[in-house]
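Budget justification aside, the reviewers requested a transparent look at the raw inputs and outputs of the sequence design task funded under Objective 1. We therefore reproduce one unedited record. The lines immediately below are the structure tokens for a 542-residue chain.
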């Protein structure tokens, strides 16, 4: 018997031009104890479909038709009040972003208790005990302490576990997990997905997994439903779909997914990585970091050493990756290289110039040579400015050219990063995530830097958009001779773009080398753990 059966679901949104259909006749079933994955890029309709089942569409959203059956219950057309009665006891929701889903001013335990209170658990002591039991169930260490803490005191993975604890509090038959791991490191991602698998196996919980990551879907779902533009283009057993996809869109998703090793377009190593004589002749080091140390003061605690004796070299015109999970020190290292932080010890050279103690004019000159692209372009772009002015801003800051010349340069860069010309007059909120990231890259290139530091620059993007950005970065490097320092927690992405890599853990480099060699024969246990956590690494014949 099906736990959930969806038949001909149709959803629309209100727009200025009238209502627009966004989900077109979607149908699927989920069996007891089964995981089914809804897969597709942003805008494909997968989250809208999931939220429609719960009556949680945003303002302007409306179910236009179709049937939704939960067990024997026909719930399509139910009022919000009626749907609230099954949210929690029958269907649990694990939202994508714990940062916005958890109340920042309430302790964790109180937030887990809330769903119990809303569904009739009146005894505070028993609610408290159940909340601690749930936190322990989802693998949170010292649950009694954690229950008294606030969201900001927990890591991203722990916050996601809190959301899972809340979702399973009333032992629902069906769990809807909406991109539950998209912002997590590979190792943390694996632990969260392992937890969902345990719930399915031990409790018999059925799971609707919403994800853009085919690697995750391949590893965890028994069946796949592939969505494009609000329509199902393919569905079936995961092994069958992945081995022989019938639709071109599915084949494209597979080709773009960095977790699948087949079909990687790996960058070819420059001659000086293959030829020792060329190295001696050219001495092509763009970045030399030696013995970097950085400590931070932590309130009521001893000083915390975020970077501990880190050394690496990056050859001119290549991509060097710093990879590791959150807290490994990779972003702090990048900020030391760009001199947004001053190292407590060690040295930094950029093209032979010692910039360790750079200040004043030397530091300003360094800013022209090294540019930084952040993970979240929306947060780094002024929402009030037009795109043309955002891209031209570095030129203005350094007094380069007239206003007309700066505008012309910005327009040329918009074209160079493959954005349509009409983007120039828009604001960031009018662009997609991939378009905003292209704007951030264009801005970084405005003053012709020698080095670009990319800090998790593709981690928040769908695999298809991610693949296009990686291709753009590779072509820019080939044409402009750029050197990249690429910060990432995703080894699959690192393999796709980098020539050399340093693996960081707890502030130290535990392994480094040419990327392909490191992947082929990792020497450190931590590197092997990171590789094992990459979803969908099994070769797929197609």
């Amino acid at each position: 018997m099906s736990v959930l059966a969806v038949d001909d679901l149709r959803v629309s949104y209100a727009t200025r031009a009238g209502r627009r259909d966004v989900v077109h006749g979607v149908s699927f079933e989920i069996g007891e104890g089964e995981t089914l994955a809804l897969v597709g890029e942003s805008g494909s309709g997968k989250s809208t479909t999931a939220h429609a089942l719960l009556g949680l569409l945003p303002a302007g959203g409306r179910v236009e038709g179709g049937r939704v059956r939960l067990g024997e219950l026909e719930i399509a057309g139910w009022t919000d009040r009626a749907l609230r009665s099954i949210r929690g006891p029958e269907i649990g929701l694990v939202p994508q972003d714990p940062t916005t889903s958890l109340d920042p001013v309430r302790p964790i335990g109180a937030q887990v208790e809330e769903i119990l209170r809303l569904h009739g658990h009146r005894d505070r002591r028993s609610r408290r005990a159940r909340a601690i039991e749930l936190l322990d169930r989802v693998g949170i260490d010292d649950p009694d302490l954690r229950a008294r803490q606030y969201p900001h005191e927990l890591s991203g993975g722990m916050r996601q576990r809190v959301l899972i604890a809340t979702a399973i509090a009333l032992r629902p038959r069906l769990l809807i997990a909406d991109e539950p791991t998209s912002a997590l490191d590979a190792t943390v991602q694996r632990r969260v997905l392992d937890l969902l698998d345990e719930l399915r196996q031990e409790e018999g919980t059925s799971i609707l997994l919403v994800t853009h990551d085919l690697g995750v879907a391949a590893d965890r779902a028994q069946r796949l439903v592939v969505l494009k533009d609000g329509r199902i283009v393919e569905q079936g057993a995961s092994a069958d779909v992945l081995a022989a996809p019938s639709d071109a869109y599915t084949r494209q998703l597979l080709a773009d997914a960095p977790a699948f090793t087949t079909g990687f377009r790996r960058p070819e190593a420059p001659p000086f990585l293959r030829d020792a004589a060329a190295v001696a002749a050219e001495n092509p080091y763009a970045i030399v970091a030696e013995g970097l140390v950085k400590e931070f003061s932590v309130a009521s605690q001893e000083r915390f050493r975020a970077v501990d004796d880190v050394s690496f070299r990056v050859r001119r015109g290549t991509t060097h990756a710093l990879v590791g999970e959150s807290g490994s020190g990779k972003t702090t290292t990048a900020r030391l290289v760009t001199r947004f932080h001053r190292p407590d010890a060690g040295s930094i050279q950029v093209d032979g110039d010692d910039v360790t103690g750079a200040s004043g004019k030397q530091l300003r000159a360094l800013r022209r040579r090294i540019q930084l692209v952040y993970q979240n372009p929306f947060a780094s772009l002024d929402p009030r400015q037009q795109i043309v002015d955002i891209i031209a801003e570095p030129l203005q800051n350094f007094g380069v050219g007239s206003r007309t010349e700066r505008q012309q340069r910005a327009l040329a860069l918009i074209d160079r990063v493959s954005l349509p010309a009409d983007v120039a007059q828009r604001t960031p909120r009018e662009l997609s995530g991939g378009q905003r990231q292209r704007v951030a890259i264009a801005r970084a290139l405005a003053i012709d830097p020698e080095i670009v530091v990319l800090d998790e620059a593709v981690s928040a993007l769908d695999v298809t958009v991610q693949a296009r950005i990686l291709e753009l970065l590779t072509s820019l490097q080939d044409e402009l001779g750029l050197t990249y320092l690429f910060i990432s927690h995703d080894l699959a992405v690192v393999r796709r773009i980098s020539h050399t890599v340093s693996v960081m853990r707890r502030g130290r480099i535990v392994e480094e080398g040419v990327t392909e060699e490191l992947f082929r024969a990792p020497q450190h246990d931590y590197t092997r753990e990171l590789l094992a956590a990459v979803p969908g690494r099994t070769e797929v014949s197609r």
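The two ends are 33 Å apart (CA to CA). The first strand starts at residue 2 and ends at 15. Computational costs for records of this kind are itemized in the attached budget.
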